[in-house]
Amino acid sequence: MCIGSRIGDKKRGGVPFMSHPPITPEERFATIVEELLSYPDVTPPSDGKGFGESALKIHGKIFAMLAGGKLVVKLPKPRVGALIASGDGEPFDPRKNGRHMKEWVTVEPTSAEGWLSLAKEAMEFVASKR
Fold first, then answer.
1. In 3D, which of 32, 30, 7 has the Cα closest to residue 20?
2. How confident is the model at residue 51 (pLDDT cuts 50, 70, 90)?
3. What domains sit in the chain, N to C, each tagged with a CATH number?
4. What angle do CA 76, 78, 79 make, to 5 degrees?
5. DSSP labels for the chain?
6. Greater confidence, 32 or 113?
7. When comparing pLDDT for 93 and 9, which is higher?
């Protein structure tokens, strides 16, 4: 079962039922953390409160985090632009002052883009910049 497939009502024999309770963004991100910790040089989020403390890192550099119930990933500028243009992403504005971080994109839990695949893509991108 894919991470995002446990959402919503389904019908069995014309009668609606809940197959599973909806997965929260926090649970979804925890699954991503668990999956990516098997890669060398990936470190988990820490318990601190500062920027990036809740982020996945590779070689000490942030590549994915959960912010406001959304996945935030670091990707090449053209990829960020494509995600925004398709409606699957939004510019990342951490200070909420209109100044977007150009290599970062925010992805809603309802996005057609898979969070795990985006997190892996971000991990590879950040690792390649070393």
1. 7
2. low
3. 23-128 (3.90.1150.30)
4. 65
5. --GGGS-SEEEETTEEEESSPPPPHHHHHHHHHHHHTTSTTEE---S--STTTTEEEETTEEEEEEETTEEEEE--HHHHHHHHHHTS-EEE-TTSSS--EEEEEEE-TT-SS-HHHHHHHHHHHHHHT-
6. 32
7. 93
Give me 35's structure tokens. Answer: 């999956």
Higher pLDDT, 94 or 39: 39
* pLDDT of 98 higher than 50: yes
β-partners of residue 74 are: 104
Residues 6+ apart with CB under 8 A from 11: 17
